[in-house]
């Protein structure tokens, strides 16, 4: 069990390093504010919209990828409409909140039906 835990952390750290290299190459610099802004909110929103539960960690990788496509589509659509940044945050947060509420209600109904 310990070997599995260590290998998972090692693989996670390796992928984080690769992701950092990709981000540094994209912005052509490496600084402390590179991941600032809405990067964390978009990552969480993509996972939750893809079906990963905030209450139990259930979900699949491909569903998270679909969540990324939904978030990116929303952001690009709002960018094409020249919507202000604060409104983009509010719309993304509303989509995330709606998804969490739907997940919560679904989990409650599954518990009452004995399928949780």
Automatic annotation (TrEMBL):
Keywords: Cell inner membrane, Cell membrane, Membrane, Sugar transport, Transmembrane, Transmembrane helix, Transport
Subcellular location: Cell membrane
Segments crossing the lipid bilayer: 6-24, 36-55, 61-78
Domain of life per record: Bacteria
UniProt keyword annotation of Nuclease present: no
Coiled coil ranges: none
Mode of membrane association: Multi-pass membrane protein
Signal peptide: none
Cross-referenced InterPro entries: ABC_transp_permease
General function of this protein: Part of the binding-protein-dependent transport system for D-xylose. Probably responsible for the translocation of the substrate across the membrane.
Protein name: Xylose transport system permease protein XylH
């Amino acid at each position: 069990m310990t070997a599995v835990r260590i290998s998972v952390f090692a693989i996670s750290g390796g992928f984080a390093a690769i992701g950092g290299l990709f981000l540094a190459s994209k912005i052509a610099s490496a600084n402390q504010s590179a991941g600032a802004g809405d990067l964390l909110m978009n990552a969480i929103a993509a996972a939750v919209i893809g079906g990963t539960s905030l209450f139990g960690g259930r979900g699949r990788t491909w569903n998270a990828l679909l969540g990324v496509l939904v978030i990116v589509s929303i952001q690009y659509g709002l960018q094409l409409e020249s919507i202000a940044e604060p409104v983009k945050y509010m719309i993304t947060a509303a989509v995330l909140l709606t998804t969490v509420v739907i997940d919560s209600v679904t989990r409650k109904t599954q518990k009452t039906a004995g399928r949780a």
